[in-house]
Amino acid sequence: MQTVWILADQLVPDHPALAEANKKDTVVLFVESRRRASHLQYHQQKLVLLYSAMRHRAAELREAGWTVDYHRLEDTKAFSDGLKAHVKKHRPERILVMEPNDYATTKALPPLAKSAGVEIETVPTNMFLVPRAEFAEWAEGKKSLVMESHYRRMRKELGLLVDADGKPVGGEWNFDAENRKTEAQYRKAKVEPPPLAGKQSDETTEEVIEAVQRHFGDHPGRAEGFWLPVHRAGAQRWLRRFVCDRLEGFGPWEDTMVQDEPHLFHSVLSPLLNIGLLTPKECVDAAVRAFDEGDAPLASVEGFVRQIIGWREFINGIYWLRMPGYTELNELEAKRPLPEWAWGREGEETEMNCLRQCVRQVRDTGYNHHIQRLMVLGNYFLLSGTAPREVLDWFNSMYVDAYDWVMAANVIGMVLYADGGFMATKPYAAGSGYISKMSDYCKDCRYKPSVKTGDDACPFNYLYWNFYAEHAERFAGNQRVAFMVRQWEKKSPSEQKSIRAQAQAFLS
Ligand code: FAD
Ligand code: SF4
User: Fold this and answer.
1) What is the pTM for the complete model shown?
2) 370 alpha carbon to ligand 1 midpoint, in Å?
3) Other CB atoms closer than 10 Å to residue 417's CB: what's the count?
C-alpha cells in the first residue's frame, strides 16, 4: 500500500504520482490544516478557493475510482494530525508527493513524515514549463538575469509565435508600442470591459465558506460573495471566456487603471494556474490558437504569452535559484513598518486615492492587476522605505493568487529592489506622472499630481525625489537611473531641503 499526498496548490489534472500509481494499492491523501491557514492572515477568499478546490478535486478522484482519505479543517488542527491519523489507518509503505512549490514546504515534509513513521518520496513537478535545474543551467555564470532573453529562448523552444527559422511572427518579439495605452485613450475609445464569468457557488463551496467564516473570520476580506471557479471544468470555461471576450483588449489596456473596473481585460487566470486547475501550456496554446484563427490581434496575444512563458516561468526560476535567503534580502536597508491603511479596515484609509482604491479592491476581492500591484502599491512601499519582510507578508496575505514562489521575486526583486538589482536593472520608482497618465484615480484625490511641494502636492512627487536623495550614491553608478540622481543634484539646496522635509514629515 502506498499514499499519494496531494497538496492544496497542486490540484493538477495529471498528477505525475497518480499517473504511475495503481488504484488497487494507492490511497490519495488530502489534508486541510487550520494551523497552516493561520500562518499569515490569508484573505478569506483565498482560503475558500483552496479548500473548495481541494474538496472538488477529491470528489473527482473518488468518482474516478480512487480511494481518498480526506481530512477537513473542521477536524484537523495541523498537518501532523492528518498525517498521523492517515498512517495509523492505512499503514502506507511510502508517501509520494509532487515537489512542493515553495521552499518551506520542501524542507518541512520529510521530518513531518518521519515523525508519523513513514518515508516521503518526491516526484518532479509538472506545474511549470521550465524545470528548476534547467533554469539554473541557463542562469549559470550570469551576474543579473534578463527576462527578455529567457522569454525569447522559451518562444523558440516551445515554437510559439515563431516561424520555421525561429524568427518572431510579425517581425518583432515585443509589441509594447501598440500596447499599454493611457487612461485618456481608454476614455476616448469608449471601451467596455466584458464581465467575468459570474459568481460561482455550489453546496461544497457554501460549506467551505461557512467553515472559513467560523475559523478565519478575523482574516482580511469576506468569505461570502466568492467569485472564482473551483474545479477544472469551471477553470477551463473561465479560460475560454477570457480568450473569447477579453484577450483582444488585453494588450492595449494591459497597464491602464480605471476606478471601479478591477479586471479590465486581464485574464484573472493566476488564482487557477497557481493551484493547478489550469496548465500554463493550455493557456498560451488557447491564446495562440485565437491568433491563428484570426480572432485576436498579434500584439495582445504576444503580450499574454510573454506574461505566462516569460514572466511567470522567470519568477519561479529565480525563486528556486536564490532560495534560501532570497526572501530575507534588504539591500536598500528599508525599515519602516507597513502602514495600517494597507489592511483596508474601516476608518484607517489613506487620503491618497490611488492607494485607497487599490486597497479597497484587494480587500473586497483579493485581486489587483499587475500595474496596481507594481506601480501603485509597490511604488509606495519602495519610495516609503517599507521593510521588505512586512511588504512580502502583506502581499502574501491579501491576494488570492499569492504563494511564496511567485511573491518572492515580484516583491523582493521587482518592486523593492531588495536584491540589489539581480532581477530588475533599475528600481520601478515613479512620481505622480505615471499614475495620472495611466489611471483616473487623480481626479477624485485630495492631492494634485501636478503640484510638487506644499499641502496639495501629491506625496509621490516628493517621496520620489526623497528616494533618489537617500540612495544617490548607489544609483549614481546605475546607467539606467543615474540621470535621476543628477537631476536631484541640480536642484537648489533650498528646494532639496524643502522636498526632504516634506517627505520626512509625511512618512513620520
Ligand atoms: P494577467 O495580466 O492576465 O497576466 C496573465 C498571467 O501571466 C497571470 O495570470 C500570471 O500567471 C502571469 N504573470 C504575469 N506577470 C507575472 C509576474 N510578474 N509573475 C508571475 N506571473 C505573472 N502573481 C501571482 O500569480 N501571484 C501573486 O501573488 C503575485 N503577486 C504579485 C505581487 C507584486 C508586487 C507584483 C508586482 C506582481 C505580482 N504577481 C503575482 C504577478 C502579476 O501581477 C499577477 O500574476 C497578475 O496580476 C495576475 O492577474 P491576471 O491573472 O489577471 O494576470
Ligand atoms: Fe495618487 Fe497622487 Fe494621483 Fe492622488 S494625486 S491619486 S496620491 S498619484
Assistant:
1) 0.98
2) 6
3) 26
Nearest CA to ligand 2 atom 3: 442
Res 198: pLDDT: 72
Instruction: Round to whole Å and give the CA distance between 266 and 246.
Output: 7
What is the rounded distance in angstroms from the CA atom of residue 404 to the CA atom of residue 103?
A: 8
Instruction: Report whether residue 232 contacts ligand 1, using a CB cutoff of 6 Å.
Output: no
DSSP 287-299: HHHHHHTTSS-HH
User: Looking at residue 7, what DSSP letter applies?
Assistant: P
pLDDT in tens, 273-321: 999 999 999 999 999 999 999 999 999 999 999 999 999 999 999 999 9
Q: Residue 257 forms beta bridges with which residues?
A: 439
Grid coordinates in use for 248?
A: 483582444
Distance 255 CA to ligand 1 centre (A): 13
Write the secondary structure of 135-157 as one string of H (helix), E (strand) and C (coil): HHHHHCCCCCCCHHHHHHHHHHH
For ligand 2, the distance from its centroid to the CA atom of residue 445, given in whole angstroms, is 6
E-strand spans in 261-313? none
Nine cell digits for residue 410 = 515580484
Among the bound ligands, name the one nearest to the CA of residue 361: 1
**Ligand 1 close to Cβ of residue 9 (< 6 A):** no
